[in-house]
Amino acid sequence: MTAIELNARPHKDYSLHLQEAQHVLAQAAAQYAGADGDAARVTQASSLGAEDMVISHIINRLQLDIGIFVLETGRLHKETLDLLDQFKADSRAPVTVYKPVEEAVVQFVAKEGLDAMYKSIDLRKACCNIRKMEPLERALKGKEAWITGLRREQSGARAEVPLVDTSEPRVKINPLANWTWGDVWHYIKESKLAYNPLHDAFFPSIGCEPCTRAISMGEDFRSGRWWWEDEAAKECGLHVKHADGSEASPVSALPVSALAPKASV
Ligand code: SF4
Hints:
Blueprint: H1 3-7, H2 14-31, E1 42-46, H3 50-61, E2 67-71, H4 78-90, E3 95-98, H5 102-112, H6 121-140, E4 145-147, E5 164-165, E6 171-173, H7 181-191
Parallel strand pairs: 1-2, 1-4, 2-3, 4-6
Antiparallel strand pairs: 5-6
Helix pairs in contact: 3-7, 5-6
Bound molecules: iron/sulfur cluster.
Residues 73, 75, 117, 124, 127-128, 131-132, 207-208, 210-211, 236 line the site of iron/sulfur cluster (SF4).
């Protein structure tokens, strides 16, 4: 059974959800348009997961002036890399791929091992910092706002996600905040969108290969990510919130020592 067959069941308010997402994205493109031919001051962060494919499709369909970036961590599944090639070829909006600093990866792997993420939460976060957070910082440089595929339904930690989050200096726009998983797959079905085949193998949330697994019926959407850790630790830093609700800035969320390439092992 495919992910479409299993999930494509729109909410009764699907039309409103779609209108809302289109409106939020069009507003973002207008509000953060670049001046004098400069790139827009807003960008979409895409993991190439189902939600992000929907958002990119709306951006392309409405011909919005919003670029898209993908973090290629060096540990993605082959299925994701294949989809990335196809996505880059098909997208009207420019797609930029950001990779980690090679020297930082080499030094970290030499010291801690390729699969250090299983040894401790600190090492897992250090790996995320090198492979995701530092490239994210580069991707967001000069941007006043970014667009994500966060939905309230994804996990308890995301239950309060707003459409537009202004709690940090860099605004986070979540056009699918109110969408259900059924809405996402209905859109993919109706629009005949390409999607990651791992979704057909019960991977609702797809990240790096060592840190993502299939889930069972009834499990939380995010339970396939860093499944060996407690729920509270399960964000890579991209969407970390402090206890008071404010958001951790990407790189400062993790130890500085994990960031800088070291001179020697
Ligand atoms: S998700 Fe896993 S492999 Fe990917 S950067 Fe984080 S710890 Fe490393």
